[in-house]
């Protein structure tokens, strides 16, 4: 319990900053939507002038109706995923190896507790942190959508979107924790985790740009859920959810295994 409290306390400030950043993205996105609506600009003609590569990078599909709040909001799911992924993976990588980074591991591991009892509270704290981040995203989304959608916050669609986001957060938390346990250097663990996020994103962009690379979708979690499918079709891929959850469990298991076997630096 003391380890859990320590991890929660150590991450309060960073969690607040991450949540504020997410709220700002949602606020800015909805303000941008309102600006387009008020200007009476023909969105189809405006977007037709942009290269396909730019549209893909910004998550805008040709089939999206950006004059509707659901279509405009679904574009921002890409940004939610990126921000949530970085937050989750960094928490996992740092929490697992925090004591070694700060050269105070001997104070913790000298206690009569098993390593399982050390790592479990850290991961629980990670799950609580990403859940709080998710709920803040949910609350801000419903609130700002309702302001620009005649009071309709699209509760059901946003709830489904947040469920997909939470599954992705679990995946990246497990990925970061695994690298934090396997690699001996915290900076290396966070760097490798960040490189994986960038790689996943670049693969997702390549898949959208080139039809011949569609088979690569399975290798990037950013393509397991689509904002348009969640918000417009109100559907969540059960297969994608199961695959990500299974891989997350594997990563968590590898975290326990690697943490239990490695030599700890003090």
TrEMBL record:
Residues that span the membrane, as ranges: 12-30, 72-96, 123-146, 158-181, 188-207, 238-259
Signal sequence residues: none
Superkingdom of the organism of origin: Bacteria
GO cellular component terms given for this protein: plasma membrane
GO molecular function, one term: ABC-type transporter activity
Annotated keywords: Membrane, Transmembrane, Transmembrane helix
PANTHER family in alphabetical order: INTEGRAL MEMBRANE PROTEIN-RELATED, MEMBRANE PROTEIN
Name of the protein in its database record: ABC transporter permease subunit
Organism in which the protein naturally occurs: Acetobacterium paludosum
Lineage, top ranks: Bacteria, Bacillati, Bacillota, Clostridia, Eubacteriales
């Amino acid at each position: 319990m003391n380890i859990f409290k320590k991890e929660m306390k150590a991450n309060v400030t960073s969690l607040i900053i991450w949540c504020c950043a997410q709220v700002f993205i949602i606020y800015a996105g909805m303000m941008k939507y309102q600006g387009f609506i008020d200007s009476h600009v023909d969105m189809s003609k405006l977007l037709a002038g942009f290269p396909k590569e730019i549209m893909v990078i910004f998550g805008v599909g040709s089939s999206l109706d950006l004059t509707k709040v659901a279509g405009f909001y679904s574009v921002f799911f890409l940004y939610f995923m990126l921000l949530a992924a970085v937050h989750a993976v960094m928490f996992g990588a740092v929490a697992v190896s925090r004591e070694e980074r700060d050269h105070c591991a001997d104070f913790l591991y000298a206690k009569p507790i098993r390593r399982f009892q050390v790592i479990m509270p850290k991961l629980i704290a990670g799950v609580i942190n990403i859940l709080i981040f998710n709920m803040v995203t949910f609350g801000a989304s419903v609130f700002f959508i309702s302001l620009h959608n005649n009071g309709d916050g699209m509760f059901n669609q946003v709830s489904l979107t947040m469920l997909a986001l939470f599954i992705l957060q679990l995946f990246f938390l497990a990925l970061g924790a695994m690298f934090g346990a396997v690699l001996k250097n915290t900076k290396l663990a966070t760097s490798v985790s960040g490189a994986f996020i960038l790689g996943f994103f670049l693969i997702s962009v390549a898949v959208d740009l080139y039809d011949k690379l569609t088979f690569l979708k399975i290798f990037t979690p950013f393509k397991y859920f689509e904002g348009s499918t969640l918000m417009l079709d109100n559907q969540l891929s059960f297969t994608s959810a199961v695959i990500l959850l299974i891989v997350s469990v594997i990563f968590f298991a590898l975290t326990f295994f690697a943490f239990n076997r490695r030599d700890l630096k003090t």
